[in-house]
Give the backbone structure.
Amino acid sequence: MNQLTNLSASTNPITALVENRQMWKATGEIMRATYLATAQEKSRATLTATALENTMMLSALEEVCCRNAPSGSERYAHIVNAYAAGAAKRIAGW
């Protein structure tokens, strides 16, 4: 039995070849989409981890600033909250 006909239900080798090419094209498209989705997910996780680290650092700095210059505590909190809100918005919108 011809190897091309094994790849397709068709008895015509040309039709089987075309169907085989279509299958490989579809497989390639699925693989590309999967790779892209994986890369996007990893990028989003990296962005999220970075935002969390930055927010933690800024929050710690806010505490230090509040101890050293308590009169600016509302401004410090506003700055840290603005950063955190902006980061969360960017992550959610990804």
Remarks:
- The helical segments are 3-6, 13-68, 73-93.
- The mean pLDDT is 89.
- The CA atoms of residues 21 and 49 lie 42 Å apart.
- The longest helix spans residues 13-68.
